[in-house]
Write a structure and sequence with these properties.
This protein is mostly helical. It is 65% helix and 0% strand. The protein contains 17 helices and no strands. Helix 9 packs antiparallel against helix 10, helix 10 runs parallel beside helix 16 and helix 13 packs antiparallel against helix 16. The protein starts with 25 loop residues before the first helix and ends with a helix.
Length: 352
């Protein structure tokens, strides 16, 4: 059997077999009086503080000049029990110094972000969450701007659209005033996942696509809730928070007055999602168009099996961050109006 031996206490005339075992705290007994004095007055605490500051400086330097060594590594095992032990057992006496988990699939890894420092990623994630939450609170500002600018009168101020101010076609003016704000708002909402994906990949440097989709799902859902709240209450979240600070019970008054009056809007919303939005999602026009293009322009008999697998029969991933928030929003709407107006459950059941 192997034994831990302190060679300082070996007898000169004896070999390693006669070594004395180290007892817990044995080394501390033989330290100098000065060293033990420094330990009692808290020198070890100061040393740990200096070490922590040094680590934070390393993080800042790495964020500026880039890392020369990756902070993430992969270890391959030959048996499953070793994988379970390594993934579940603490591998270092310092907490969170060495974090282990089961490795994701290679296609799920964003390899350009794999060397990112985990502390820097966490700091950027907190900063992004703060500014995105602030954007959700102030979401009424872009909505108000859309309502003010997406009108025929505003478009007439554009040089090449000045003919709208002299046009006598009232139907065209009513059409622009009625549909242009809706189209502009839908365009803005559709751009949000693209912005969230860019933030997660290029700013936060998340290391897996599944983590990116998870962040998009959460943030997109919160922004949809903010949009619905502003639509229902006809006011900004900032104003509502201001009212809640002075009278917290007013939240129930605001929701009690506004929710029952807009049930027709949400019934129309679910009907539109069922008849127009959901078929577009199920058709998956992007992969469908790509497959039809390859089938019409290429001959399968002239292609190899690898080309067929990569071009025509390639597996397409689901953008969970784009699709799931809409489903969750429908669930929230149905649960909210189940008691107020049970008829909405019919449209929710048809949707699902």
């Amino acid at each position: 059997s192997k034994r831990l031996v302190d060679e300082d206490f070996l007898d000169e005339g004896n070999d390693n077999k006669s070594a004395n075992l180290i007892q817990p705290g044995g080394k501390d007994k033989h330290k100098s009086i000065m060293w033990r004095f420094f330990g009692k007055i808290g020198f070890d605490f100061v040393s740990a503080g200096v070490t922590y500051v040094n680590q934070q400086l390393d993080v800042v330097v790495d964020s500026v000049i880039g890392r020369t060594m990756a902070s993430t590594g992969f270890v391959s095992f030959t048996d499953l029990p070793s994988v379970c032990y390594a993934a579940s057992a603490p591998l270092c006496h310092q907490p969170e110094m060495l974090q282990t988990s089961l490795s994701p699939e290679p296609r799920d890894i964003i390899w350009k972000n794999i060397q990112g420092n985990i502390n820097l990623v966490k700091q950027r994630e907190d900063a992004a969450n703060f500014f995105l939450a602030l954007g959700a609170i102030l979401w009424s500002i872009p909505l108000t701007a859309i309502q003010a600018l997406a009108t025929a009168e505003s478009l007439s101020r554009v040089p090449f659209m000045s003919w709208l101010s002299t046009s006598s076609n009232l139907r065209l003016t009513a059409f622009i005033n009625g549909y242009l704000p809706v189209v502009a708002l839908l365009t803005l909402i559709m751009i949000l996942p693209i912005i969230f994906e860019w933030v997660a990949v290029n700013y936060e440097n998340r290391k897996t696509y599944s983590d990116v989709q998870n962040s998009i799902l959460n943030r997109y859902f919160y922004y949809q809730l903010a949009n619905i709240f502003i639509t229902v209450t006809a006011g900004s979240i900032w104003d509502s928070l201001n009212d809640l600070l002075y009278s917290p019970y007013s939240a129930f008054v605001i929701l009690g007055r506004s929710l029952p009056t807009v049930v027709g809007y949400f019934v129309s919303f679910l009907a539109t999602k069922t008849l127009a939005g959901l078929p577009m999602v199920l058709l998956r026009l992007g992969p469908l168009g790509k497959m039809l293009f390859y089938r019409l322009c290429l001959r399968e008999s002239k292609l190899t099996q690898r080309e067929l697998d990569e071009a025509i029969y390639r597996k397409e991933g689901i953008m969970y961050g784009w699709e799931y928030p809409t489903q969750l929003l429908v669930v929230v709407i149905c649960f909210t109006y189940a008691c107020i107006s049970p008829v909405i459950l019919i449209f929710g059941a048809i949707y699902f």
